[in-house]
Structure prediction request, 269 residues.
Amino acid sequence: MISEAADAVRKAIAPRQPTVAIVLGSGLGFLGEEIGDAVRVPYARIPGFPQPTVQGHAGELIAGTLEGAAVLAQSGRFHLYEGHDPAVVALPVRVFAVLGIRTLIVTNAAGGIRRTMRPGSLMLIADHLNFTGRQPLAGPLVEGEERFPDMSDPYDGELRARARAVAAEERIPLEEGTYAATLGPSYETKAEIEMLKRVGADAVGMSTVPEVIIARARGIRCIGISIVTNLAAGLGAPTLSHKEVLETAERVKGDLGRLVKGIVRICDA
Ligand code: HPA
Prediction:
C-alpha cells in the first residue's frame, strides 16, 4: 500500500519533488492556501488514504513552493480516535519518506497544562509522552524502517534552535515543552490532567506522536508546534469544546503561519 500511495502522489505532483512535509493540524488548513504553484491531490485519489471525518480538516495533499522551498502539505490528518489503525495514521509519513522528504513539520492543537500556557500560546515541542496506548511500529518490520529507532531526541535540536531564532526575529512569543498524546476522543478528566502535569507534560493533544515515531524510524528530521487552544481540563474554562479549539486556532493563525514559514526557510539552510 505504501508504494502504491507514493506512486499515485508522485505522478499527481510531477515534476515537483518536495523535500519538506508540513502536517496541518486542526484549523490550520489555511497554510495550504499560501503554497504557490500548487497542485492538490485529494485523498480519494491516493490508495489507502481514507476520507477525514473531523470538522476543520480537509482531505488533500498540496505540493508546491512555500518560501522558496519545495513542500508537500497534508491538509487533514488521520487520528487514532477516528478508529484508524496506527498504520493508517502513519501512512502519509511513510509516503513522504518514499517521496524523498527529509524534514517533517507537524502542527497540532493542544490543551495547555504548564502554568505559563495561555489559550493562543504557541509551543515548540521539545519532547513527547506517548499515552495513546498504540505504537505504529508494532508488527512486522516495514522495509526502510529501523526495528528499534532511537527516540532520545525526536524533535531535532538544531531545527528547534533555529525556530527559536525565527520566533525571536518575528517577535512571536514561543513556549517550549513536552507534548503528551492521548488516544481521545474525549477530553481528559481533571484527574488525568493532574497526572499528566506530574509526569512532566506541558500540553496535551490527540495526534502527532504516531507520525513522529514513523518519521524517526525512517530518519526524517522532525519539528513540531502546538497551538495551545485552551487550558486543559480543570485549569481554565469549566468545559472544553472543539468549537473553542477552532476559534483559538483561527485567532493565532497569523503568528503560526509566520513561524512555520520561517522554519521552512531554514529547513534546507
Ligand atoms: N486535550 C486534548 N486534546 C486537545 C485539547 C485538550 O485540552 N485541546 C486541543 N486538543
Q: What stands out?
A: The chain is about 30% helix and 25% strand. The first helix runs from residue 2 to 13. The chain has one domain: 2-267.
